[in-house]
Amino acid sequence: MEAKNVETTKVFYHSEVTTLNGIHDVAVREIDAMYKEAEKTGLKEIAPMQFVYYGLDDKPDTKFTLEIAIVVDEEKPYAGKYKFKDLTGFKCVSTIHKGSINKLGKTYEKFMPELFKSGNKMTDQSREVYHNYVEQDSPENITEIQIGVN
Question: Given Cys at both, which of 22, 38, 83, 144 links 129, Cβ 3.0 to 4.6 Å?
């Protein structure tokens, strides 16, 4: 577990209310389309894609807001489905998950007790930063889990 301050970044993003059970469907529907729009718009990705969660808990049917964010170098004129914003920096604790995205839950299960034991108070925001994504079940995936703290 590592404490860190994440800097504000410019993102091209999609926002949607979903549930844990719905994340995969949103990702499959939106990610390729987002990258096509980013390419058509001439955007340059400068850091790994992030999933930003607001109000996420461990219950499969709880509704929360998911933002799928491509970190870009600048905002450009664009009139399509996706939006730009400054993704505000935040204080967090993080850990690294290596392997299948389907096994991220196991890393959360190990990480959360450490977080509570540390005395940090969670905010309603968490993020997953996809440092290396090969495919859903790849053992080569590297995902950083970031939990916002006060």
Answer: 144
